[in-house]
Amino acid sequence: MFKKTLTMAMAIGMSLGTGSAAWSSALDDVMEARGLTQKDLLAAAKTYTPSGGRDEYLAFSSGGQSGQLIVYGIPSMRILKYVAVFTPEPWQGYGFDDESKAVLAQGRINGKDINFGDTHHPAISETNAEYDGQYLFINDKNNPRLAVVDLHDFETKQIVVNPHFNNEHGGAFVTPNTDYVIEAAQYPAPFEDEYVPLEQFNDRYRGGVTYWKFNREIGRLDPSQSFTVEMPPYSQDLSDFGKFGSDGWSFTNSFCSERYVGGIEKGRPPYEAGCSQKDTDFLHAVNWKKAVELYKAGKGKSVNGMDVLSMETMVENNALFLVPEPKSPHGVDVSPDGKFMIVSGKLDSHAYVYSFAKMMAAHSAGKYEARDDYGIPIVSLEDALERQVQVGLGPLHTQYDSKDCTVYTSIYVDSQVTKWNYCTGEILDKLSIHYNIGHLMTMEGDSASPDGKYLVALDKLAIDRFNPVGPLHPQNHQLIDISGDKMELLYDMPIPLGEPHYAVAIKADKLKPAIRYKSGWDSRSDKRSPYKTRAGREKTSRTCDGDNCTVEVFGTVIRSHITPETIEAEVGDKVIIHLTNLERAEDETHGFAINGTNVNLSLEPGKTVSATFMADTEGVFPYYCTEFCSALHLEMEGYLLVKPKGYKAVEGEIVDGTTYNKADYDKQYQTNLDTQAIIDSVVGYITSTNFKDFAPVTALVEDAVDQLGFAAAWQKKAEESAAANDFQNATLQAGQWWQYQVKAADIGLRAKTYLEQHGAVVQAK
Ligand code: K7E
Ligand code: CUA
């Protein structure tokens, strides 16, 4: 025994030895053939993730104009998912099944479907200012909306429309315990939905900041507990919440505090000139906890069904003040300890480090340099500023490192990332990026304890970085190693979906995504679906109310058939189809699409979804499963038959294309017995192990037991038909029995492989 082990170890050692020699010479060849340097290899080694490997972080990137969310792994930069948020997405059935249509319908504006979103800033829910991995919020700039994505299944659950703004930008950002999600307006407009001439811009147009209450228990925003703080008609921009010492305050930038109104067609200089004349704009500091108190005390005024706290009320209660900030700023980023906020002006080469303590000292002492035209007090720049640091041309956003006082600022005009120390003002490093960086992101970089390690540059232009694909270029996300003193560029990832603005990255092990739904689950409302259908309980009904008839199907899908296999309707009928995926096995999704109807469903294991449509054209409409789910996936099919109104059935029966006799039956019967022997041996192996310790296997075993139960039922039918000398049906029934056996065997073999690969042990009897 000992000797045998030794010989095996020697054999392995030897093969490893010769193997690595072969690898190293091949490596030289590959390097030469592809023109790779040692540095390239090092970068590759830092990002390459072998087959089956996992990433340390998951990034959630805005999908820009696609209205979606992009999920990718870091450091591999492999795209894992597009989460449909504001835009219909066929693969996920989003905007095709009734359940998700209801979510999109929440985002209607003035009753109109808005089928895209300009997504900018995702935010992961936080507990004690740390990412908790439960929910994600993302905003739509063009149509002022926020969406809630549940990270338990990576699905969009809710969309809310801001009732006051006609545009927004400074969202989504969360309070340290995700009590509120902030959304700041961008281009001022009247809060009431009415026409107000531009001549009344100063008096009637308004900016603002909305605080959306988040109810974590149900995982939804609660408009009935949410409110807006009115702001002057400056263009409010990015926002952030304070934490620790600055908890209770939020900070929102603005540009165009000139309140300039353009109109080149009337000979006025354009917005860009009028909105960049002054050297400074205003940072808005809001005591949001005070605002909540005022709102709860009824100090707000309802506008379009949601309360607005006026600037006057806020100022009277010392809950709002302004601080000058560098011209046309973009990001405001609060430090992990909550003590500082870094603001950069796009038209100023400096980053300004503000001290919360200093601005509060001036505010508490009532030491203001002036008031703006709306009566809001202004704390002077000198009284609030810690320091200003020359970081480069066109600084935009700043992210924090795990190392003390170390930050990275994106430099748009210079196409660089500047690494600097905000406690000393020292510039530590600069790295060129390709090209024109917008946001940047470090790992958990806007939480209380950034992880450092990697930085992703979200570049606005790719220009020459990739193979040309026509005038519209992909976006370029560049992965940068920030673990050392100097930044090192590792990888370029093209993003061809839209222009991502911001992204957030969370440690992957903080996420606990499900792999299946509880059976019969409506994933959009997160409740058991009233249309859940069990195996054997499928039914179709046709009911009429006068001339209006409705065909309603309660069906199921499971490898490899759809129940029902025929749906009959008459022209003019409303058809409602509810389908439940009976599978429990990981990744056994079925699809469902009907020709000519725009019905297209995705059924992940356990899910129940519905489709409602009018059968307005007579004809024969095949339907089928759109996911290659099993060997007999192509046979997962059926017909929707839409008959002319009042159609009288023709006499006769379906005639099978092929007939079977006793010999056929006996042959199938023997095949089934042989198959059963294989199944028994696999089952024998599985049950001899500690398989119950492996959750994925228990799920597979449950599915296999289901399939074997169905097999037994069809065996019984086949034997009864054979006893009655009906070999046509007996053979077909034995065939269906065999189909269930094959599926059980397939599942069983997958379970067996899993057990073998995951170190299951055979237990003593
Ligand atoms: Cu593009 Cu934050 Cu909307 Cu900056 S934003 S770049
Ligand atoms: Cu189910 Cu293909």
UniProtKB/TrEMBL annotation:
Its EC number is 1.7.2.4. The gene is nosZ. It is found in: Cell envelope. Residues 520-542 are annotated as: Disordered. Its main location: other. PANTHER family: CYTOCHROME C OXIDASE SUBUNIT II, NITROUS-OXIDE REDUCTASE. It comes from Candidatus Thiopontia autotrophica. Keywords: Copper, Metal-binding, Oxidoreductase, Signal. InterPro entries: Cupredoxin (IPR008972), N2O_reductase_N (IPR011045), N2OR_C (IPR034205), Nitrous_oxide_Rdtase_Sec-dep (IPR026468), Nos_propeller (IPR041114), NosZ/Cyto_c_oxidase_sub2 (IPR051403), WD40/YVTN_repeat-like_dom_sf (IPR015943). One of its GO terms (molecular function) is nitrous-oxide reductase activity. Residues 1-21 form the signal peptide. This is Sec-dependent nitrous-oxide reductase. GO terms for cellular component: cell envelope.
